[in-house]
Design brief:
With 221 residues, the protein is mainly α. Helix content is 79%, strand content 0%. The protein has one domain.
């Protein structure tokens, strides 16, 4: 298998994650939030009837989340080549991606337990498990902001990727950080911007790996 094909497959992991994430959240418009009462969470939990399709979708979402790792690796290689040594920003970007994936995987455990035992669960336990998942979801915004902030700095300085991706990453990073302390009062705009950035970056890396590689070489020349 050629290096170009491997690079494209890794880069496509970002688009795969975004698509599966949108499919997984499309039916959760009535799900409770951090501001919901314990009774409301208990009623919502009791109404959940999880079947095989839900577990398949859950497993697919875990696979899609893991696919962020090869996407981040492909992005890291591109940004590292453009940044040059000692490559501190690109390495920090990769570390942020790893922490993001780890937090999201950790948040899947209480969510799985919540749906697995939804019919025989007290409102107090249901609200605790739901809040654990929501808090991990919000905490993931911090490493996401770190990842996008580092990527923005390299892109805007070297133009290794289209500059509009750099500006979008910079704006999204600020929105994510600003949303953390008020997460129970504002919609997750930063998350939607982040998904848009990941999707667009993934498409650019898949469609133009050779051009991106030449831009990275030119940036360090």
């Amino acid at each position: 298998m050629s290096k170009g094909i491997v690079t494209r497959l890794c880069a496509a992991g970002g688009a795969f994650y975004v698509i599966v994430s949108m499919l997984g959240t499309s039916g959760n418009s009535h799900a409770p939030s951090l501001s919901s009462s314990r009774a409301a969470i208990g009623r919502w939990t009791a109404q959940q009837h999880t079947g095989s399709a839900h577990y398949v979708l859950g497993a697919l979402m875990v696979v899609a989340l893991v696919a962020v790792i090869p996407f981040a690796a492909a992005l890291w290689r591109t940004l590292r080549d453009a940044e040059g040594e000692p490559a501190l920003l690109s390495t920090t970007m990769l570390g942020g991606a790893f922490v993001w994936v780890a937090l999201k995987l950790a948040s899947a455990t209480p969510e799985f337990a919540l749906h697995w035992r939804s019919q025989a669960m007290s409102a107090q336990l249901a609200s605790a498990l739901h809040d654990m998942g929501d808090i991990a979801f919000v905490m993931a915004w911090v490493p996401q902001a770190l990842m996008l902030g580092c990527a923005a700095a390299i892109i805007l300085r070297t133009a290794v990727l289209p500059r509009w991706l750099g500006w979008l990453a910079a704006v999204t990073s600020v929105v994510l950080l600003a949303s953390v302390p008020v997460s129970n009062h504002v919609p997750p705009l930063g998350v939607f911007l982040m998904l848009l950035w990941v999707l667009a970056t993934s498409i650019v890396l898949v469609r133009r790996p050779e051009r991106v590689a030449r831009a990275a070489v030119a940036a360090t020349a």
